[in-house]
Amino acid sequence: MPVLKGFGSYADLPAEKINDKITRRVMAGEQGMIVWWDIKAGGHAAAHSHPHEQLVWMVTGRMDFRIGEQKMSMGPGDVAVIPGGVEHEGFFPEDTLVMDIFAPPRQDFLDGGPPPYMVPPKKD
């Protein structure tokens, strides 16, 4: 994913399929990044942490979210801040659109490919 300068369009951001339930669009500048997640019912972002501060804005749908020891069922209009290094996890009981802002930008997202915590375990 390239770092943008100047103007662009959400529609022009490539939709990257992460797994059968999760798709993302990424827009990054030099010091921050926005990620739009389109998550189908039954999606799961397993427990993980990263050094980036993360701001969350629920656009549509529902997310059962845990930040550290705190839990909340989030819906449209709800927001959250996840400090860098704090473990968090999300379950999606219905189709959801959520927007995350990361600072600084996540190089792993710029590189593309699914985050390990969003890859379903392989069945033997």
From TrEMBL:
It holds the Pfam family Cupin_2. Residues 36-95 form the Cupin type-2 domain. This is Cupin domain protein. It comes from Variibacter gotjawalensis.
